[in-house]
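Ticket #4471: structure export looks truncated?
Reporter: QA, pipeline team
Priority: medium

Steps to reproduce: submit the single chain below to the structure queue and open the exported record.
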Amino acid sequence: MRYRLTFVAGVVLGYVLGTRAGRERYEQLKKQARQFAQNPAVRNTAETAAQQGREYAGKAYHAVSDKVGDRVPDSVAQRVRSLRERAGHGSGEDDWGTSNT
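Actual output as written to the record:
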């Protein structure tokens, strides 16, 4: 699905940049893109994908940090510890410092 969406976005961008239809056609495409982005199904799908991405990133982060723990520079290790402590206190942020809203 991601590749199909990337392809469609590339086609649209190529058309907009290569067209001689003028401002009117550009505004029409912009309006359609805005309507597509505001569609509840599209927004729900994007939010679901973002949530899954955060979950996978968190799992990968923990797996890598467990295996590499002692082999990283002290500055990085300190940053990781501070992030773990902050996550443990229920600050509403994930391991990357972003909000989970």
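Status: closed, not a bug. The export was complete when the record was re-opened. Leaving a note from the reviewer for reference: The chain has a mean pLDDT of 78.
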